[in-house]
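[agent] plan:
  1. take the single chain provided in the ticket
  2. run structure prediction with default settings
  3. attach structure tokens to the ticket
  4. add a short note for the reviewer (M.T.)
[agent] executing step 1
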Amino acid sequence: MGSPRYICVHGHFYQPPRENPWLEAVEVQDSAAPFHDWNERITRECYAPNSRSRLVDNSGKIINLLNNYAWMSFNFGPTLLAWLAEEAPEVLHGIVEGDRLSRERRRGHGSALAQVYNHVIMPLASAHDKKTELQWGIADFKKRFGRDPEGLWLAETAADVPTLEALAAAGIRFTILAPRQAKRWRKIGTEAWQEGGVDPSRAYLCRLPSGKTIDVFFYDGNISQMVAFERLLDSGEKFLSRLTQGFDDKREHPQLMHIATDGESYGHHHAHGDMALAYVLYKLHEDPNLTLTNYGEFLELHPPEWEAEIWDNSSWSCAHGVERWRSDCGCKSRGDWQQKWRGPLREAFNSLKDRLDALFIERGKELFPDPWAARNGYIDVILDRSDESVQRFLEKYARPALPAERVREALWLLEMQRHALLMYTSCGWFFDEISGLETTQCLRYAARAMQLARHFELDYEEDFLTILEKAPSNLPNVFKSGRDLWEQLIRPAKIDLDRVLAHFAISSIYRPATGTARVYLYDIETLDHEAASRGGNHLVMGRLHVRSRLTQNEADTSFVVIHYGGLDFYTVLRRPRSTAEYEEAKKKFFQTYETGSLAELTALVTREFDGEVHHLDDLFTDERRRIIDIVLHDRFEEYVQTFERLADQDEDVLNRLGRMRYPIPRGMLTAAAVSIDRRLRDEINRLDADGATERVQNLLNRGKAWGYQPDAATLALVLTEELQGVTSEINAQSDLAAVTRQAVGILDTARLLGVPLDLWQTQNRLLDAYAGLQASNALTDDLKRDFAALAEKLTITPALLGWRP
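[agent] step 2 finished; step 3 output follows
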């Protein structure tokens, strides 16, 4: 075969940040159902499976597990890693473990690459912003992976010479670009440059005007495209075959066949794509004629013998360079929509950013000897929000002995800058409509940055909107322009301390209100709380203190909440006055509540407790839905019981109509379906009871005549959770025979309903339990037998039980 052949598969794992900028948390997203939000859904479909991907035999039984991260090359967006650290730490552990294992196998070279902190188009960023994006991204990488990065992924692979200079200055050894970003290349030591199609199988040296150098890899564009858009992951064999076809027998040098794709291709964009990848990685590892590698190891073995120059302002995803992120360049995903809004959006952000930077320097120099150095170092606080971390940061970067009010100013400025960087997230320009989720997220970051600037008595909003008004929407009946979008979606989303306090005050009806509680990034101390109930209504009065963990802003309030019943809440906040006045008002209000009408109470509160009024709408989304569920639980139950009664009364009619193929009226069909859905869930919740499976079968038979179809998504979630609960705490004292019987009952019920279960977590728990008992010498022959029986039911070959994560 001649010269050595290497293969490297790179995955760029990234999601646009979805956190509410005022809460620093992802709120519920209905489009991601049955999951809470898209981060959670994609984690389950992609990020988690790639840490323990399944290799299966011809019968679908699991014969091995592979941590794909240990065998591929990858990078994760820092904002995504921050979410994983909070919401899915076991998945982050698997990712970090993959990098550690790769270092053991690849001559000390880890498979993980860093990324610029925010997914910003680097050629369009200022020099200061380039430096901060890199320093923040590298610091985040070092915290997660415990080492310095060798390589770094650029958002959309967008690059120019100043960007490469910034990478080199930051100590980055290499980056990965698209083949069309190569301008020309030549063998080192020769004079003649070549142009045309670059050979992606080499590493290239890029010489920079400063005298520094950086190595560049140009990935194989054709095969990368096939993975992303041509369903190459439908078959592991097909994927493997296409990768090996990327070698050229005419080449005499060591060849690196490498591709770069969105990491989400491996499980989210393509269901079970992680398994196709695992199959390929396993087969390549076993092939004696090929070497599975990563970029750092390949550079050590084969330093560049060729050098290259790149096209400035180029990227992989825009044929026009970086125009997609600042103009109506023609790149689109929907052919009948315009993108004339992209230019004004960039203009509005740039104008705002210039003003925010000027404010940052003007006020920042009073607080920091070097404001830009302080901003670069602020990543230490972003990664650790504790008071001790803030104090260490101030000691290092701030002027000595700042009083508390100046510390708050410093944090306002730095948070303002953080959100000003986040508003440039590239996803805001990528799609076709200004009101899309990604663009509105960027606008919310801009709103938060302007809100922080108002602490310095500066309001940039009207000038910003004057520019944004030039950005047309593709939905003129909904949004005439970016200004309309702002008025309808962005301005109402803003949150201040009063709204946080109102949220907590209303919630206190249904939550314990003592001591200090955390509401997202706010600490709220209950100073006083008294509540009374009468039928379906409530009166609550209290005093609260709130403090932001990010900016250290603080506020106190007294509040009154009148719940009239249902969804009707009336909440008043006002700044505290004397304790005596508060106690006197409380006495009056509760006396009136006990003896008078709600109308009299409302009139009294309106007259004697003047302040800002809030309603249920002011609660944050997740809590608002929780309270709605509580308040309307009895009403919802009444609807279901009515449906069940009607369905029972009309069962014979339904069956006869079904047999005669008569179109069943929608209302009748809905009542019957809701009735059987409810009864099926009840039976599933007590599957260990005698006859439960038979009762499930009877319910299905009842609905068969009129075409009942189970609510598959909901039932799958319920059954999956039941199965996870049964297998959640297996230990040496567990009755595995009983666990197996329960598991079999759940699996049989799922088959009966035609509902596919998500076995991934249950299988992992079984394997982990076996490995733990094995390590502690607690496995008896009986336990081994019972484990093998349960493994068989969960499609795991018994031979895999010795596997260790």
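[agent] step 4 note for reviewer: The longest strand covers residues 522-534.
[agent] ticket updated
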